[in-house]
Design goal:
heterodimer; A: about 375 residues; alpha/beta; B: 2 strands; about 0% strand
C-alpha cells in the first residue's frame, strides 16, 4: 500500500509542476520573443461602425508585419478589448492592458469620450497611446504619451472653408447636432470663420434622433446666407438634406466628414445630390490623381482589406492601420523600451498613411494637415472630386 | 409670416405623429390603467417592418402597410399573452417594469434584425410640396394629418358605438362588475393591447417616408407620445390628438423663435408643468371624475 508521501511525490508533484508550467510559464514563453500591443475598440455598440473595421485593420496590419519577420526579430502580439464606446469600459480595458497584459503600447479607443477617459491612465503608467478618435482635445494640449491618427474636425473645417473661399461664399448658417461631435464642429466653425473672411449669420442645432429639421432650416433661410453647413453623423444630416430639398432651399449645402459614407447617399436618396463634404482620401482613392503620394498606400490597403474580409472597406479602419504602422516604425531599435518608443513616435516625419501624411513633433501629436481632406460633391449618387 | 406658417406646418406634421403614438398610450390606459413603456418600440417595429416588407421584399406598398400593422399587432398579442397575462400578481408597478424590460428586449431584437444603421424609405407619393404663401406644405403631411383624424374618429366610434368597445370601457371601470355581467375581462385586455400596438405600428408606418428609421428611434418617440398623452389627459382619445398637435406645434415654434437647442426641453418642461399644475391633462378632468 502506498503511503501518503509516495503519492505526494509520484503523482501530485509532477502534476503540480505540469500545471504551473501550463498556467505560469506558457504566456511568459511567448512574451519573451514578442511585443504585446493592446487594442481598445468599440467593436460592438453604437460606435461599432468605427471599432469593427479598426479591429480588423489592426489585426491585418499586425499579421502582415509578423509574416515579414516581425520587428527586430520579435513578433507582435495583440490583445484587444471591446469598449462598446463606453468610457467606463474603456477605463477598465486600459487598466487590464497596463496591469495584467503589460502591453508596450495601446491603439485606440475608437471614440472621443473613451479616449479622453483613458488618456490620464496612459499618461500615469507611461504607455504610448495612439487614439483612433477625431476629437481635437485628445492631442491638444499635447501630453507626452498620447497620440492620434484620425483627422481632427479642425482640419475638416479648414477644408470646407477653403472650398467656400474659392466660391466666394461670405455668409453661412450652421446647423450642428447636439452631441460631442456637433459641439466640437460648431466650435471649430465659429472660431475659424474669421480667418477665411466668412461670417456665421445663424447657428442652430438639432437632436441626434430628431425626425424633422424643417424649423431650423426655415430659421436659417430667413437670414439669407450664401451657404448652409450641417455638422453631424447619420441619420440627422440625411434628414436635413431631405428637409432642405422639401423646402426648396437652393443655396449650397455642406455636410461634415461624419457622413462621408455610401450609407448617407442611400439614406438621403436624391436629396443628397449636389451636397459638398470633406472626406479622407480613402473614399475617393480611385479618383485621386496619380501624383498623389497616398494613392499607392490607399490602394494597397483597400485591396488587402477587401480580399481578406470580403466586405467593402470603410473610411475608419485606416486609423488603426496607420497607428500600427507608425508604432512599427517607432518600435524599430527601441528594444521594447516605452520611453524610446514614445520619443521615436514623436520624431516620425513624412509617414505616408491612409489618413494623410504624418509629421509628428514634440508639439504636434496628430501630425496631419488640412490636406488630409479632399472636398467631394455628390453627383448621380456617387462622389465626384472637387478641384 | 412665411416662417410662422412653415413652423406651424412642420409642427402639425410632427404633432400628428406624436398624436398617433399618444392614441396608443390612451387606448391601453383607458382599458387597463397600464402605461406601456415599450410602446415606442412598437412604433419602431412598424417603421422598420414596413421598410423591410416594402423595400426589402418588394411587396406592393398597400399590402406591405397592412402586413406591417398586422404583424406588429400580432407581436402585441404575443406580448400580452406571454409577458403580461402570465404574471401571478399583476400589480401596476410590476406590469410597468415588465413593459420597460420589454422595451429593452425589443430594441435589442430590432438591433439584431435591422442592424445599427439607419434606414430610409422613399415618399409614398411623389407630389411636389404645395406652396402656401412661401411656406412649403408636404403632401405627406396632409396625408398624415388625415390618417390621424380618421383614426381618432374610428376609435371614438368603436368605443362609443360598438358593443365590444363599450364592453372594453366597462371592463376598465370595474373588473368585477364587468365580469358579473358576462364580459370576458381577459379578452378585453388582450384586445386593448392589440389595438394599442397596432396604432403604434400605424405611427411607425406613416413616419417612414419623412424621416430616418433605426432600431433606437422608439425611445424618444415613445416619450414624446407619452408626453402628448399626459398633456391631453391619459385615456382620452381627443386629448391624445390635441396633446400631440399642441406639443408638436409648440416644439416647432420654440425651435424657430427661441432656440432649436431647447426643442426637447420644451416638450419635457411642458410635461413637468402639466404633471404639476393639472395632472389630469387638458381633457382628462371628466375622465377622472367618472363616478
Amino acid at each position: 500500500m502506498r503511503t501518503w508521501p509516495t503519492i505526494m511525490n509520484r503523482i501530485l508533484k509532477p502534476a503540480l509542476a505540469g500545471l504551473i508550467c501550463l498556467i505560469g510559464f506558457t504566456p511568459l514563453a511567448i512574451g519573451a520573443d514578442a511585443y504585446k500591443i493592446g487594442g481598445l475598440f468599440s467593436v460592438t455598440g453604437r460606435g461599432s461602425f468605427l471599432g469593427d473595421p479598426e479591429k480588423k485593420s489592426m489585426e491585418m496590419a499586425i499579421e502582415a508585419i509578423n509574416q515579414a519577420g516581425g520587428i527586430d526579430g520579435k513578433l507582435l502580439e495583440t490583445v484587444i478589448y471591446d469598449t462598446e464606446g463606453d468610457p467606463q469600459k474603456a477605463v477598465s480595458g486600459i487598466s487590464r492592458l497596463i496591469n495584467k497584459d503589460e502591453v508596450i503600447a495601446i491603439i485606440g479607443p475608437s471614440n472621443t469620450p473613451p479616449s479622453l477617459a483613458v488618456k490620464s491612465f496612459a499618461e500615469r503608467a507611461g504607455v504610448p497611446l495612439i487614439s483612433c478618435a477625431a476629437g481635437i482635445t485628445i492631442t491638444q494640449p499635447v501630453t507626452p504619451w498620447t497620440f492620434k491618427t484620425a483627422q481632427s474636425d479642425a482640419q475638416a473645417v479648414s477644408a470646407v472653408y477653403a472650398h467656400m473661399k474659392g466660391r466666394n461664399i461670405k455668409t453661412i448658417g450652421i446647423l450642428t447636432v447636439a452631441d460631442s461631435f456637433g459641439e466640437s464642429g460648431k466650435h471649430q466653425l465659429l472660431s475659424q470663420a474669421p480667418d477665411f473672411g466668412i461670417k456665421v449669420v445663424c447657428e442652430e442645432s438639432f437632436g441626434a434622433k430628431d425626425t424633422d429639421m424643417t424649423a431650423q432650416l426655415t430659421k436659417i433661410r430667413k437670414e439669407k446666407p450664401d451657404a448652409i453647413v450641417c455638422w453631424g453623423t447619420n441619420p440627422g444630416p440625411a434628414v436635413v438634406a431631405k428637409n432642405a430639398q422639401q423646402l426648396g432651399i437652393d443655396i449650397p449645402l455642406y455636410q461634415s466628414h461624419g457622413v462621408a459614407s455610401p450609407n448617407f447617399i442611400k439614406l438621403a436618396g436624391d436629396a443628397s445630390e449636389g451636397i459638398y463634404l470633406p472626406t479622407g482620401k480613402i473614399l475617393v482613392a480611385g479618383l485621386l490623381p496619380e501624383t498623389d503620394p497616398q494613392k499607392p498606400v490607399l490602394q494597397k490597403y483597400i485591396q488587402e482589406y477587401e480580399s481578406r474580409y470580403q466586405q467593402p472597406v470603410s473610411g475608419f479602419g485606416g486609423y488603426a492601420y496607420d497607428a500600427v504602422h507608425l508604432l512599427a516604425k517607432a518600435l524599430k531599435g527601441a528594444n521594447g523600451d516605452r520611453n524610446k518608443i514614445r520619443q521615436a513616435l514623436e520624431n516620425i516625419t513624412g509617414h505616408v498613411g491612409i489618413s494623410g501624411v504624418f509629421n509628428m513633433s514634440e508639439t504636434e501629436h496628430n501630425g496631419l494637415s488640412p490636406e488630409a481632406f479632399v472636398m467631394v460633391r455628390i453627383q448621380n449618387g456617387t462622389w465626384a472630386l472637387e478641384p | 409670416m412665411q416662417e410662422l406658417l412653415q413652423y406651424i406646418f412642420s409642427g402639425l406634421t410632427n404633432g400628428a405623429i406624436y398624436a398617433v403614438i399618444a392614441l396608443g398610450f390612451s387606448i391601453l390606459y383607458g382599458a387597463t390603467r397600464l402605461i406601456n413603456f415599450a410602446h415606442g418600440e412598437f412604433v419602431m417595429l412598424g417603421a422598420l417592418g414596413l421598410i423591410s416588407l416594402w423595400q426589402g421584399l418588394k411587396i406592393p406598398l398597400a399590402i406591405a402597410l397592412v402586413l406591417a400593422v398586422l404583424g406588429v399587432a400580432l407581436i402585441g398579442f404575443l406580448f400580452e399573452r406571454l409577458a403580461i397575462r402570465t404574471v401571478s400578481r399583476p400589480e401596476p408597478i410590476v406590469l410597468i417594469i415588465i413593459t420597460v424590460g420589454a422595451s429593452i428586449f425589443l430594441r435589442g431584437v430590432g438591433m439584431l434584425v435591422w442592424g445599427k444603421d439607419a434606414h430610409s424609405a422613399p415618399a409614398f407619393f411623389s407630389f411636389a410640396p404645395i406652396d402656401v404663401m412661401g411656406a412649403k406644405l408636404l403632401v405627406q403631411s396632409i396625408w398624415i394629418l388625415g390618417v390621424v383624424v380618421a383614426l381618432t374618429f374610428a376609435l371614438h366610434a368603436f368605443f362609443k358605438k360598438t358593443l365590444v368597445g363599450k364592453a372594453m370601457t366597462a371592463a376598465s371601470i370595474s373588473k368585477k362588475a364587468a365580469w358579473l355581467t358576462g364580459i370576458p375581462y381577459e379578452w378585453m385586455i388582450l384586445l386593448a393591447f392589440v389595438l394599442s400596438t397596432a396604432t403604434g405600428a400605424v405611427a411607425g408606418v406613416i413616419i417612414t417616408p419623412i424621416t430616418m428609421c433605426s432600431y433606437d428611434m422608439g425611445t424618444l418617440l415613445g416619450l414624446k407620445g407619452f408626453c402628448s398623452a399626459m398633456l391631453g389627459g391619459l385615456g382620452s382619445l381627443w386629448g391624445a390628438l390635441a396633446g400631440g398637435i399642441v406639443l408638436g406645434v409648440l416644439e416647432s415654434l420654440g425651435a424657430g423663435f427661441l432656440s432649436s437647442g431647447y426643442k426637447d426641453a420644451i416638450a419635457f418642461g411642458l410635461l413637468l408643468a402639466i404633471l404639476y399644475i393639472r395632472p389630469s391633462g387638458i381633457f382628462g378632468a371628466k375622465d377622472l371624475h367618472r363616478f
